[in-house]
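Fold this: DUF397 domain-containing protein
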Amino acid sequence: MSNESAWFTSSYSNAEGGACVEVALSWSKSSHSGNYDAQCVEVAACPTTVHVRDSKDKAGPQLAFGPDAWAAFVAFAGAQSVA
């Protein structure tokens, strides 16, 4: 599991650096990811959103789920057999 935090400047901050607020997401690697980073998924949970990204492209696109949608996804994925 990674203890890395990713910091983001708030969209309400201005370009001159005044009134800047930064927030951090603490990313965790999936327990189903292998040691070779070939199929790694990381998640960062906040009170109202669960963020998901590919660990090989940390600056790339991310998905964001509400807690209920994430719980439904995890329940569905857990019920599936792995080939």
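The chain has one domain: 5-79. Residues 5-79 form one domain.
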